[in-house]
Request: fold
Amino acid sequence: MNACLNSMRLSQPTGLYLDRSKTISFQFNGQNFQGFQGDTIASALAANNYRLLSRSFKYHRPRGILSMSGQDSNTLVQVGDEPNVRADTRAIEEGMQVQAQNVIGSLERDYGSLIGLIGRFLPVGFYYKAFYRPKGAWRYWEKLIRRMAGLGKIDLNSRSEYSDKQYRFTELTVIGGGPAGMLAALEAAENGLKVVLVEENPVLGGSLNYARFVKERDQIVAKTDELLVAVRKQANIEVITQAQCTGWFEDNWLSIFTPQRLVKLRSKAVVIASGSFEQPAVFRNNDLPGVMLGSSAQKLIRLYGVKPGKRAVVMTANDDGYGVALDLLDAGVEIAVLLDMRKQGPATELTQAITDNKIDVLYEHAIYEALATPGNHGIRSLKLAAITGEGQLSDTTRTIDCDLVCTSVGYTPAAQLICHFGGKLVYDEASAMLKLDGMSDYGSRDKAIVAGSLNAIFDLSQVMADGLYAGWSVASIFNSATKAAPKQVNQAAQDKQNHPWPIFKHPKGKEFVDFDEDLQIDDIQQAVAEGYEDLNLVKRYSTVVMGPSQGRQSALNNLRIASRAAKEPLQGISVTTQRPPFHPEPIQLLAGRSFQAVRRTAIHHRHIALGAQMMPAGNWLRPAYYGKPEQSVKLIEQEALSIRNKVGLIDVSTLGKLEIRGPDAAEFLNRMYTFAYIKQPLGRLRYVLMTDETGVISDDGIAARFSDTHFYVSTTSGGSDTVYRSMLHWNAQWRLNVDITNVTSAYAGISIAGPASRQVLEKLKCDVDLSAEAFSYSEVRSGQLNEIPVRLLRVGFVGELGWEIHVPSSQAAYLWDLLLEAGWEFGCVPVGVEAQRLLRLEKGHIIVGQDTDALTLPDEAAMSWALAKKKPFHIGKRSIEIQAKQKQSRRLVGFTLPKNSKLPRESNLTLIDDTIIGRLTSVAYSPVLDQIIGLAYVHPELSEPGSLFDIKLSDGVRLSTEVASIPFYDPENLRQEL
Amino acid sequence: MTKQSPVAHKHDENVYEFGELNGYRVPLSIHDKTKGEFQNNGLTLCDMSSLNRLGYRGALIDQWIMKNHQIELPDINQACLIERGLLLARLSQTEIMMLEDIGARESDFAKVIDNSKTNVLSSEFPETYLLPRQDSHACFLMMGDHCAELFSKLCAVDMSIDKFANMSMLQTSMARTSVIVIRNDRNDSPSYMILIDTSLAEYLWDCLLDAMDEFGGIVTTANMLGIE
Reply:
């Protein structure tokens, strides 16, 4: 054994989760502690006899271990940059830095606890009544309240750890790896089902690992080992430990959270065997460190090898408390007294063992109050008294010294997942327990079955039988049950576990019903007295069951107190709605490893090598310009001038490309686009403008005709998928004989433009005659460049002699290199998107989506030249004709400003006097024109060149300008037709 | 070598020896000095974009296949081996894809292409069209026992061994991109061809590498898979 000196550490065989060969050092509030590997923060501190873990939310009361299962807020701590970590389930790690949260001062001396002194002035709902008076006071209160609100600290600089998601599928998922869950999984697996068994703890076993059940526990250990071996050997069972199922959704979709992964599990059937939550008793100071659930003490002993205290009082309403007392005794804890709230306990081997060990048992007794040590950091003694009625104790009390109080007064089903699926928890007076309602039809409808203590079955042999039956039942639903039907457990014949009223009001209060929100008996009663009688109203007014534990320890007692206060019968009352998630879900896991697809052209890495600054264009990455960002303006101008004066290459691979083939190809284009294509000559290009059914411009591009039955159509970069889908959609209705193929990624595109572009191409081995006579503007050819198959399109988007070279994407990078090399002597440079946009602006060419919006009609964008008015139909034609008869409100025009003007920004407003008449869509300084040029919407009556209007800059300054003719550059289009 | 796979640059020249395959410059093998670092832990990824593939679409595609290969088309979303190293995958009623697989003879695919040129666009099979799958899609090969588990991190469809049978095909979304996955086992090892839009190939490659990491998967080469 490693030399880890923990004063409260027990020897083996206790400490199932521990690896005692490995000592872990960590810090809590700056103080060094040691534990063993497998210890949680809370168990390691408890092993060091350190009980104080946190401060409560409202009164800053000292809090320690309560459930030892991650189901309460008492153990919330900050670990590094992670707030609200449950210290009773988070394993310690070497060097871990743990801090208490919600303290003003230190954990030991928290000045926030002074609020408790004025607690009587802060009753339930006080914040609804207090802070709005006097008028204007709220702004001061708000700051204070905001400072006090919330738990833990977020480190905005922290880096999220790696996490991902996984989709899984199985025939049966069993939630809960306790005795019922294991038996259900085994039975289903043995009947041939594929089973995923989900367990939140590090090992399977559930209560088998910590509860006593019988006098001699050896037989439980043997049975547990036997089950674990059987599960391990069963090939049809996959076990996922340290996994929490946080939600159960339609069609058995289960969200399973593991430490680093969200598993989205789709299961044909589900067995929920998630067990029960032990419930606390309510008495004065029941929240002090040292008061814990009986099962928590057993977990400390058996799972973590920690002695929970030195002298204990056990208060119980069932036989489990007897097991707790015996376990404590075995662990070396002195039992001061065992308080049995019942009139008499049944004669069992456990009760006999208590007698044999001469433990003092007081029947019909309960705790009146716990008395705190100085500083309220623990308990020094408690007062007990005889029970005289429901919630009533005798005036005669007896004080007993102790440092540990364990309560075993009943259970509530851990039924949250079932409630996500429509189940309800309703109160059953006979058993004093919440029971599931409405589960009877689940088996056939959703293949969902509940097993174990969720069915209010607590006897171990019966729990296992119930699990077995659940497993067989699922198999029988699938018609795969090969084994004989096991005997069904009679749920009605179970022993009573819950005390009907473990709630004892004290004249001085501090009997906590809800530990999260520091709500006491008075608070619940007061909420009802103020008229909030319905449980849902009590919840919202008082915030009971709304804290981190979501009512796991408070819902049952709250229901009892509120219903009694409202004079409502308890029978049949249901708890408030349980919604997902069952456990807190780390945002990191919800967000982790999101997929955001990025498209890269075939020449992408050439751009990177050339120093390009990449920019997003839709889901593509395109080079904005080449060079350093601080020189961007100059670089963009240089690139533009290179094309005007020499030659440049632009990667236009992102343009959408579609093959339209078939006898009806021309008719199809004629319907899809506004221009006329029936008579488009072979080998020619024609502009395509697409409008939607409302006549709004939706896309544009070029159509190249290779044969009577074959068109090659380009779209905008962002429009390829939309246009392709639209074409498929319309052709499904028209049933024309065409084949539409999206070849956007199959072909890369390189635009070579500039006066020297023909010379560059002619340096390559080209089997196409590139002369102006043989290959004029707006024509297309197929051929080869250095034996690379290409489609050459003579287009003029940037207004210079040039070609778009469409090339199989696998050979695009090679061709790019060839062109750059061939163009070297002519000053050929790569040119980015920014310069390309400037060049097209000089030519007055619109960009759909930038110079148009979701309402722009062709007339408004000065594109009516692209409408073939004589053809009978194209998509949007009817709408365009109707709207042409209406008075229009805007028109796209060109404008210029002197070069020394302040450069407007796109979307700056256009005005006449103080009336807004439109906005700028494109604007830039043109180095070749040496002035600012732009496109803007104005009133249609202002569309004639020379009309005056104002531009309002972002800073409010107004510039006067006038409408200019477009194109701004080379208005006769001579340069592109060289 | 004028052709380039969209993920060729993902292979470190210090680790991989490059050579020529079907006109592509591809990583063929691993340098001797780094071989020791490559331990196959049951998951390998290989870029097979350089292998030939071609698509066909048309109403008479079944007749064309029967004439040229004397076989019936498999069901939609199923694949079959036509002959050694030649895979046929059926994407829809009227669309198929022919893929060169490991072990194909050099002449096999050339024959396919010749047949395409002579027959597909002939009057005998009107309105049957070639689809440029070589350049529209990159092709990866994922191989090993952990494949299904890896896919479960990227794809919402159940691709477990017993649910996604050999020679089955899936047209689905993987890491939020459209892919075609064909299961084509070899040497009793689960093996999947993944076809992905060329422009998204690098993105998906990175996603696959990331998902492989927990299984100790390695990027292998054509030669290591037996492609000469």
In short: The longest strand of chain A covers residues 164-175.
